[in-house]
Design a protein that fits this description.
Layout (H helix, E strand, L loop, with lengths): L2 H35 L1 H29 L6 H20 L1 H30 L4 H20 L8 H39 L1 H23 L1
Helix pairs in contact: 1-2, 1-6, 2-3, 2-4, 2-6, 3-4, 4-5
Amino acid sequence: MGTAPQAPQETKKLKRSFGLLAGLGVLLVLAGLVGLVYTGLATLTSMFLFGWLLLIGGVVGLLQAVQSRRSNYFWLAVIVAAINIAAGFVILRRPEASAEALTMFAALLFLTGGLFRLVGGLVVRGAHFGLALVQGAFGVLLGLLILSNWPGNSLYVIGAFFSLALLFDGLSLIVTGMGARRILGLVREDEVGAGEPGTADGVRDGAVKRPAEGQERTNN
């Protein structure tokens, strides 16, 4: 008896949570669209965020290394934390130069990844041979395109990638949240429909019994 009233409340909480998830997706989509319009600002913002994340992560890693100073990996943790702190400090001090270096790294990553996909597709020739070739060619072309305009394009390449990531993540959150709310609504309708047949059957049974009783009275 106590679980029945809790079911609608739990359903409402879940629907509210998925609604908030969809709302977060809308905010991410808007941020991605704004970032695509102002790519330079998005690039600097992403650099500052990346620098602060490295700096905070390095400080936290250093504190954890100090707490576990008797472990075997103490010096390795200290070195990794120091590198993160130094990298975060450099990015925060020189965001433009960091964006240039990160753009070069992204171009080389696209170029080498595309070459590996092309060579692997030509060697393996599996079921997805054509798709592997298209992905490899796209990666190579994108890497060459970025390298051809480097370093002038470093002010908008990272911002464009960051904004596209926000846009697609926001769209996925919207789809997930709205789809989950729709599924919960269908489940709720099924539960309500499963609880009502008792009354509907009772009315139907009463309607069947009344003509039968009337027929028995006339026979008597």
